[in-house]
Design a protein that fits this description.
Length: 654
């Protein structure tokens, strides 16, 4: 099999075609100006949890800084695209000011429509050049407590890189934190291998859409002809090709195959930052700052070799990092680069971890109540990004409380009280007649227990077993009679987010369809008749999950939760239910609203391919699915907390 042709009719020389000299170069050398390319092909509308000021503030506090409270701060995003990252954060934190700039006129227009549609007045998005924006922003807004530059630094010319760092210095508040992500070595060495292959293969394509299409075919070709083997080169090539082909075209064009893509070593980036009066604070991937998962003895040897930044550089070598999410602060700030456990006590803590049996099954509430905290055998807890065993009495009690509270974040003092009560209650149940109802190793004072739990919580945060936050998200974990869904999520469903972002920019190669036999023609006609009416479907109760847990094409809608996580809704019914959760409709009204198009023939419900038409059956099925959807929305932080006489809830309901 021959590799797919890049352009079968392409001329062989510049003499045959005056444009051939340019078309023969890598795409980056003939691409239109940066703003034009993003106007033509906008970046996918995504939220990035690690950019949230709450996350930045949490890490800053753990490292000894005193960053501004996130519920009353100023945030700037450089390269904000269409506001998909910035606007959901502004919605959940209406007391803060949010400013975003981008060079793309189209994306700024989309972002303005987004926050205007939500009725937000605390957001400003402007079409500005990073090279010219600093003074104007400083004059109008003053210093910013948090600056976000995600996916910009490596993908712009050197002049813009320097302007970005200069803007961070000019605009950052005295205790402010800047987040800058960039491609880095050594991990990008492997990605560059595929990048250069694709640049060569698409060298005759000057149109970005055609460039994406021809390289997608090329990557598919590589996966077809490369045998699965133990050969390191072939294995690496297959892995990189498979990873890139799984991305949507806009990501392929703007990330790996963008005309400017300049990975750096950490020490090179920090040297540039230092020239602009900025210094290394930490990394948004908190655990990787400390070598989580790497041999402890080896880490001790690496630490002896030099400064903190030297240690971080060697960690990149050990992890093989391809992307850095560096946190910077002003050079005059005293950064101790050692952890401050007591800072945890001002934060909120949560965990998705559940205790599991030796067979891997989630423990029931009855089984959890029977856990013997005095038993030295560990309990295994499984979270989204971490599975670990916990043996200590305090540790087991702490994780049980977080598991039972999920998804609600607990203020640390509330968390401490719950842990102490569980330990005391367990001891009392074991020996109600004992004059020492609380064992001697359970601290009698909340202060002492808090001192023990703080470093444990910090270690678990580094392991991604728990999450720490610098504010309490406005989420409801117990649905009310008239649930209110996040206006952000409702806007995203109403405007087709997720489905549009995941659609390919270029159609798949056309293959002539075989002519059906008479029998197949009749069957095709019957199927066409069945699919003329939209079907709500009946997805299972577990049809909603965080983005990482679902294939890219498995769902119709992608929304942003109040925890700033991407959540996929499983099927059309979930989206229709979400749209009706405006705080005014009870469950009965929602069911009747969904049933109306079914009863008048405009839509249908099918179970195992068969339509359901009996009104009683339809209402029963819809009632069950509506209840399951609402419960899923609560678990995924899509419902807004109801607070009596709270004016903020009216804003969140807009």
């Amino acid at each position: 099999m021959n590799p797919p042709a890049t352009n079968p009719a392409a001329p062989n020389s510049a003499a045959d075609n005056p444009a051939a000299e340019n078309l023969g170069r890598p795409l980056g050398e003939t691409a239109p100006p940066l703003a034009t390319s993003y106007d033509e092909i906008p970046y996918p509308r995504l939220a990035f949890p690690y950019t949230h000021p709450s996350h930045l503030a949490t890490i800053g506090r753990l490292l000894g800084l005193l960053p501004a409270p996130v519920d009353r701060c100023r945030v700037l995003e450089l390269g904000c695209a269409g506001g998909a990252n910035l606007v959901p954060m502004a919605y959940a934190l209406p007391g803060s000011t949010w400013v975003g700039i981008d060079l793309s006129e189209r994306q700024i227009a989309e972002g303005r429509a987004f926050y205007t549609g939500l009725g937000l007045t605390n957001v400003v998005l402007e079409q500005l050049d990073i090279c010219e924006a600093a003074e104007s922003l400083a004059d109008r807004f003053g210093p910013f407590d948090y600056i976000i530059a995600h996916g910009i630094y490596s993908w712009v010319p050197d002049m813009v890189k320097q302007a970005l760092l200069a803007a961070c210095r000019r605009l950052l508040a005295p205790e402010g934190i800047a987040y800058v992500s960039y491609n880095c070595y050594p991990g990008c060495q492997l990605r560059e291998m595929i990048r250069r292959m694709c640049q060569y293969h698409g060298r005759r394509k000057s149109n970005p859409r055609a460039f994406a299409a021809t390289n997608r075919a090329f990557l598919e070709f590589l996966l077809q002809i490369l045998p699965t083997s133990d050969d390191p080169y072939r294995a690496a090539l297959r892995e990189q090709a498979a990873g890139l082909i799984a991305e949507r075209d806009a990501v392929i064009l703007h990330d790996d195959l963008e005309r400017d893509n300049d990975p750096q070593l950490l020490h090179q980036f920090l040297a540039q930052a230092a020239r602009h009066g900025l210094q290394y604070l930490g990394d948004a991937h908190f655990g990787q700052m400390f070598g989580i998962g790497i041999d402890t003895a080896g880490l001790d040897l690496v630490r002896q070799g030099g400064e903190v930044t030297d240690f971080q550089q060697y960690l990149d070598f050990l992890y093989g990092r391809a992307l850095r999410t560096t946190l910077l602060c002003r050079e005059e700030v005293m950064v101790r680069h050692h952890l401050v456990p007591e800072a945890v006590r001002d934060l909120w803590i949560s965990s998705s971890a559940v205790p599991i049996s030796s067979e891997g099954a989630k423990l029931t509430h009855e089984q959890i109540d029977r856990i013997d905290f005095d038993d030295a055998s560990p309990v295994v807890f499984r979270a989204d990004e971490c599975t670990t065993s916990v043996a200590s009495r305090i540790g087991k009690a702490a994780m049980v409380e977080l598991s039972l509270a999920h998804p609600k974040p607990l203020a640390f003092d509330v968390f401490v009280e719950r842990v102490r009560n569980r330990l005391a209650g367990t001891a009392a149940l074991k020996d109600i007649s004992s004059k020492h109802a609380v064992p001697r190793d359970v601290p009698q004072r909340d202060e002492s227990l808090a001192e023990q739990l703080a470093p444990i919580a910090m270690e678990w945060f580094a392991m991604r077993l728990v999450e720490l936050r610098a504010f309490e998200p406005p989420m409801a974990t117990e649905p009310t009679a008239r649930p209110l869904a996040s206006a952000v999520a409702r806007y995203q469903v109403a405007n087709g987010w997720g489905a549009a972002d995941s659609a390919p920019l270029t159609p798949a190669p056309l293959t002539p369809a075989p002519h059906p036999s008479p029998g197949k023609a009749a069957e095709s006609a019957r199927q066409a008749e069945n699919h003329r009416r939209p079907s709500l479907g009946l997805e299972p109760a577990s049809a909603m999950a965080p983005l990482a847990d679902r294939p890219k094409d498995a769902t119709r809608h992608q929304v942003t939760s109040l925890l700033h996580r991407r959540v996929h809704l499983g099927g059309e019914l979930a989206g229709q239910v979400l749209l009706r959760l405006d705080g005014k409709n009870d469950r009965a009204a929602i069911v009747e609203s969904l049933a109306e198009p079914l009863f008048n023939g405009a839509a249908e419900i099918r179970i195992e391919g068969k339509p359901v038409t009996d009104p009683v059956a339809v209402r029963k099925l819809l009632s069950e699915r509506v209840e399951a959807c609402i419960a899923d929305f609560a678990r995924n932080a899509l419902l807004v907390r109801e607070v009596a006489n709270d004016p903020k809830r009216e804003a969140l309901a807009s």
